[in-house]
């Protein structure tokens, strides 16, 4: 059964990060240490453990002990708790080297055993008293082992075994970018299994999944994907050619279109504009759907066909796919979904996944890119990274800027530069691979968010260019003979390069970064922990 787990060696030394801050007050908050393991069952919601408070005064370490309550987290069990370390230098000018030395002294008792684990570095700007110009940056450092990759579930319901082949096809589009589109596609495959339906491969283009673009095999190894899905209780994919043959439009009595009425302003506006209906008409359809869970809605027929059935479904009222099959579709062979947003919160459907062994949210971590993408990544690694060990950097700047501002991102990047410099020196590594959403092939969702901050893409390009120069990084550019260098394909090439790095450093948050980290940890799961490390910066709002 496909699954990956993380294994770690014994004690090793961590690179002592030399961080250059011209500051007067340094406060390092060393938070909870976790060891990998399974969830510990108990009657209480917290576990009480003894911990040591360590403070530094006049160069001496003072220790006290108290009880600390730790909330349970899935996949982790508390091992021990280290608490706050604080040192206040004298109110005088401190040279940069002295600051670095003090940071080393503060960190040294706590940095053992951290390579081969996950190091989170967060920092916040603290406002000082009125009239003071200097700011203080706080580093919150969390050492913890990584969570097991996927959670194997026990299927709890019996699957429908159809007498004939049936299909589901997303007629219009999936809604998001590469990672989330892949995730919601997996969710469709999990639900389709309940109705005994095969999923028609979507077309792909610039991370968008829908009815136009390149074949699905441009992005993913379809053979591996189908084998993975089949072994974990999912439906598998079929080609659009098979769907066209089995579901000819001339036999429209076998066809139905479903519109899920998502509770999201963007989705509502899209549907109204696409079909030219008024707000009053939409509200009436929505009212009828809420009453019974679904309603006929021929106003939203995507093409002219007298026998085509069109249903509008409230995704909150109809909370199980089996209800959709038995109560609404009633053995219709060819199902088209106008817009599919997956399962989750109220802006998606509320279907369950009690029949699968691995959730759709996690199974996409195990998908393999297409052979063409793997070959492209290998060529780049051999030619630009000398085929040797390298540091990979993945920056998701959009989240940092949108949730805070550009100044916050620049501070995170300054911290990153220091860590990269010392990582290269400590391990004798010369090559750094840099992947970011600030490049020409980066995130497609920057534009709207930047407007809220009165910024444009030029500001990002300047930051991007300066950072590459400072760290001497190598960035990926598609080779001249590669045929499909669109945004999604480039992201998958970068994902493969990141996964094979010796050390990974990340900034920000996001589903793609979560995927990159999972791939990196999967690749290193059996490696000696002396050989790799993962460091995460500024991953909290």
Question: How would you describe this protein?
Answer:
- Among the domains are: about 165-365; about 370-535, Rossmann fold (3-Layer(aba) Sandwich).
- The chain has helices spanning about 95-105, 180-190, 220-230, 240-245, 265-275, 280-290, 320-330, 360-365, 370-385, 395-405, 405-425, 445-450, 455-470, 485-500, 510-525, and strands at about 25-30, 30-35, 45-55, 60-70, 75-80, 85, 120-125, 135-145, 165-175, 195-200, 205, 210, 235-240, 255-260, 295, 310-315, 335-340, 390-395, 430-435, 475, 505, 535.
- The radius of gyration is 26 Å and the shape is elongated.
- The strands form 5 sheets. A 9-stranded mixed sheet has the order 6-1-8-7-22-21-18-19-20, sandwiched between helices. Strands 13-10-9-17-14-16-15 form a 7-stranded mixed sheet. It has a two-stranded antiparallel ribbon with strand order 2-5.
- By secondary structure, it is an alpha/beta fold.
- β11 and β12 (about 210) form a beta hairpin.
- Mean pLDDT is about 70; it is low at about 1-100, about 100-115, about 125-130 and about 135-150.
- α9 (about 370-385) crosses α14 (about 485-500) and α14 (about 485-500) packs parallel to α15 (about 510-525).
Search tags:
541 residues; alpha/beta; Rossmann fold; 7-stranded mixed beta sheet; disordered N terminus
**Computed CA radius of gyration, to the nearest angstrom:** 26 Å
The number of strands is: 22
Amount of helix: 25-40%
Oligomer: single chain
For the sheet with most strands, the description reads: 9 strands, mixed
Q: Separation of termini?
A: 36 Å
Strand numbers in spatial order across the main sheet: 6-1-8-7-22-21-18-19-20
Low-confidence segments, given as residue ranges, are: 1-100, 102-113, 125-129, 134-149
Shape designation:
elongated
Mean pLDDT over the full residue set:
72
Strand content: 15-25%
Structural class: alpha/beta
Can you count the helices?
15
């Amino acid at each position: 059964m496909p699954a990956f787990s993380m294994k770690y060696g014994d004690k090793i030394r961590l690179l002592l990060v030399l961080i250059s801050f011209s500051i007067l007050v340094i406060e390092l908050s060393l938070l909870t240490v976790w060891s990998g393991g399974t969830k510990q069952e108990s009657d209480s919601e917290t576990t009480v453990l003894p911990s040591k408070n360590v403070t530094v005064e006049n160069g001496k370490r003072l220790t006290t002990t108290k009880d600390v309550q730790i909330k349970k987290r899935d996949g982790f069990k508390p091992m021990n708790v280290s608490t706050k370390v604080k040192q206040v230098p004298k109110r005088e000018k401190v040279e940069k080297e002295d600051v670095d030395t003090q940071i080393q002294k503060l960190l040294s008792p706590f940095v053992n055993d951290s390579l081969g684990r996950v190091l989170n570095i967060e920092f916040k700007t603290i406002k000082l008293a009125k009239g003071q110009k200097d700011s203080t940056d706080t580093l919150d450092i969390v050492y913890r082992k990584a969570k097991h990759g996927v959670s194997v579930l026990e299927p709890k319901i019996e699957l429908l075994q159809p007498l004939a082949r049936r299909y589901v096809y997303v007629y219009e589009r999936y809604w998001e970018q590469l990672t989330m589109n892949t995730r919601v596609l997996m969710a469709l495959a999990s639900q389709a299994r309940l109705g005994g339906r095969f999923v028609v491969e979507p077309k792909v283009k610039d991370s968008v999944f829908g009815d136009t673009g390149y074949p699905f095999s441009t992005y993913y190894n379809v053979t591996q994907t189908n084998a993975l899905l089949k072994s974990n209780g999912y439906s598998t994919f079929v080609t659009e050619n098979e769907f066209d043959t089995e579901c000819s439009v001339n036999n429209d009595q076998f066809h139905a279109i479903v519109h899920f009425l998502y509770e999201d302003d963007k989705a509502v506006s899209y549907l109204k504009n696409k079909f030219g209906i008024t707000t009053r008409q939409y509200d009436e359809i929505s009212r009828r759907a809420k009453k019974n869970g679904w309603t006929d809605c021929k106003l939203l027929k995507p093409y002219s066909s007298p026998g085509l059935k069109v249903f509008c479904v409230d995704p909150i009222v109809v909370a199980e796919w089996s209800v959709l099959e038995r109560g609404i579709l009633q053995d219709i062979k060819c199902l088209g979904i106008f817009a599919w947003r997956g399962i989750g919160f109220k802006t998606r459907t509320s279907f369950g996944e009690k029949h699968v062994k691995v959730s759709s949210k996690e199974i996409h971590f195990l998908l393999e890119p297409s052979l063409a993408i793997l070959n492209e990544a290998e060529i780049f690694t051999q030619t630009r990274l000398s085929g040797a060990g390298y540091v990979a950097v993945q920056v998701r700047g959009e989240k940092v800027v949108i949730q805070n501002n550009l100044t916050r991102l620049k501070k995170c990047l300054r911290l990153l530069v220091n860590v990269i410099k010392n990582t290269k020196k400590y391990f004798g590594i010369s090559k750094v691979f840099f992947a970011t959403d600030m490049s020409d092939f980066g995130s497609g969702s920057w534009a709207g968010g930047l407007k809220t901050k009165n910024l444009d893409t030029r500001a990002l390009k300047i930051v991007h260019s300066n950072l590459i120069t400072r760290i001497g990084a190598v960035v990926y550019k598609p080779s001249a003979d590669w045929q499909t260098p669109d945004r999604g394909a480039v992201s998958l090439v970068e994902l493969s390069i990141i996964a094979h790095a010796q050390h990974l450093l990340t900034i920000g948050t996001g589903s793609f970064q979560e995927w990159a980290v999972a791939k990196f940890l999967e690749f290193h799961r059996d490696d000696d922990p002396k050989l790799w490390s993962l460091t995460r910066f500024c991953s909290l709002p």
